[in-house]
């Protein structure tokens, strides 16, 4: 075994009984799997994509210290969001233990009670734990004032808890707006119409580790009714805008310690996510424009090109590598 701070690299011979070549047994590999519950629906989807997921029995034999990541999933389509985020987290040479968190003060209507009981924990069950990283998802709640959201008090408690129990947090879309409002009293700006489509973005700090390796221009799906004012962010010395879009506005904000990130876009989206949202709203008779820069030739009958996948994978890999793996203490109790 090649030892590192976390000893994440091992010989292939330790991993697979199918390897027969003596040459291969002495080859060091750095790809590491994601460790999730074997019965989680996302597991089958990920394995069909050749994503390496590891069961608990096999993971327990690995002489490593895996990363502990918790996902607070506020989206109504829980299983879809789980799969999207796990796909991004798996694109890393690190072994990751993932836990799923729900808010107890809100009852989901779109995911079975059995699924929630089996795979999700409540805050009371994990509040004494510490984690290397946390992801807080978006939620379709732009029509509500924050204080009117039924789980707002519980979410604020989780935000505050994460300050001392999580090393680095990635807040996504509505979760980002909510976190900025709670911590810095930054109010979102209501857009005249929904920002909906795939937009070109660019880094405002190419030396920032989260931006490393990204192209000069990279695409990000957006689906939101809110935006942020650059002047409001500039007033907070602890915050830095690190990526931006001339069409979509602020994309990623980092605090100066790089322990909290606020992301307005949806790099985790699947190829058809925007299409499903568009056709869903059409069927409901809601006012919705076709997602911008999405359907080839703007023809809804053509399959969209997925031109944001590499950027999304890189952003999440950079977060895991630079701000979770390299920065977090080996002993989480010292957080």
Give your account of this protein's structure:
The protein has helices at 12-15, 22-25, 41-48, 56-60, 78-89, 113-119, 123-126, 152-165, 174-184, 230-234, 273-283, 309-325; strands at residues 10-11, 28-29, 34-35, 53-54, 67-72, 96-101, 120-121, 131-136, 166-172, 189-203, 218-227, 239-245, 249-255, 260-263. The longest helix is centred in the last third of the chain and has 17 residues, at 309-325. The protein is 30% helix and 23% strand. Mean pLDDT is 85; it is low at 1-32. The strands form 2 sheets. Strands 3, 4, 5, 6, 7, 8, 9, 10, 11, 12, 13 and 14 form a 12-stranded mixed sheet that branches. Strands 1-2 form a two-stranded antiparallel ribbon. The chain is an alpha/beta fold and 335 residues long. The protein is built from 12 helices and 14 strands.
Brief synopsis:
This protein has 335 residues and is an alpha/beta fold.
Number of strands: 14
**Span from first to last CA?**
28 Å
Estimate what percentage of residues fall within beta strands.
15-25%
- Portion of residues in helices? 25-40%
Order of helices and strands: EHHEEHEHEHEHEHEHEHEEHEEEHH
The major pleated sheet works out as: 12 strands, mixed
Shape verdict: globular
Rg, alpha carbons: 20 Å
Ranges where pLDDT stays below 50 over 5 or more residues in a row are: 1-32
If you average the pLDDT, what whole number results?
Answer: 85
The number of helical runs is 12
Structural class by sheet pairing and helices: alpha/beta
């Amino acid at each position: 075994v090649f030892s590192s701070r976390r000893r994440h690299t091992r010989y292939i011979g330790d991993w697979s009984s199918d390897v027969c070549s003596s040459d291969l047994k002495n080859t060091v590999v750095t790809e590491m799997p994601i460790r999730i519950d074997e019965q989680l629906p996302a597991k089958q989807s990920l394995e069909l994509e050749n994503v390496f997921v590891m069961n608990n029995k096999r993971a327990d034999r690995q002489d490593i210290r895996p990363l502990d990541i918790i996902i607070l999933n506020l989206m109504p389509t829980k299983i879809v969001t789980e799969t999207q985020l796990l796909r991004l987290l798996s694109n890393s040479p690190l072994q990751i233990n993932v836990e799923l968190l729900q808010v107890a003060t809100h009852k989901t209507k779109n995911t079975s009670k059995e699924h929630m009981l089996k795979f999700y924990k409540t805050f009371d069950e994990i509040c004494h734990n510490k984690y290397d990283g946390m992801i807080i998802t978006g939620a379709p709640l732009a029509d509500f004032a924050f204080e009117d959201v039924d789980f707002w008090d519980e979410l604020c408690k989780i935000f505050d808890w994460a300050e001392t129990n999580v090393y680095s947090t990635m807040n996504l879309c509505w979760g980002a707006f909510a976190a900025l409002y709670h911590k810095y009293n930054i109010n979102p700006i209501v857009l005249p119409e929904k920002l909906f489509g795939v937009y070109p973005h660019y880094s405002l700090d190419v030396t920032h580790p989260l931006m490393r390796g990204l192209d000069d221009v990279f695409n990000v799906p957006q689906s939101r009714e809110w935006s942020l004012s650059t002047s409001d962010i500039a007033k907070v010395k602890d915050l830095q805008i690190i990526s931006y879009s001339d069409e979509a506005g602020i994309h990623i904000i980092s605090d100066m310690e790089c322990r909290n990130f606020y992301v307005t876009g949806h790099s985790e989206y699947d190829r058809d996510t925007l299409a499903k949202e568009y056709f869903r709203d059409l069927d409901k008779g809601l006012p919705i424009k076709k997602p911008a820069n999405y359907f080839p030739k703007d023809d809804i009958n053509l399959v969209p090109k997925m031109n944001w996948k590499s950027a999304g994978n890189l952003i999440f890999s950079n977060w895991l590598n630079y701000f979770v793996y390299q920065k977090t203490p080996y002993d989480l109790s010292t957080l």
